[in-house]
Amino acid sequence: MITNTLKKLTFEDFLEQCPEDGIYELVNGEIVQMEPIRAHKNVARFLVKSFDREIDRLGLDYILDNDIIIRTVTADGKEQGRNPDVSVVSQSLWNSKVTAYGAITEPLQLAVEVTSSNWDDDYVDKLDEYQRLGIAEYWIVDYLAIASRAYLGNPKVPTVFVYQLVEGQYQAKSYRSNHRIISPTFAELELTVEQIVQSSQIRKLA
Question: Phi and psi dihedrals of 24, rounded to 5?
Answer without folding.
Answer: -135, 155
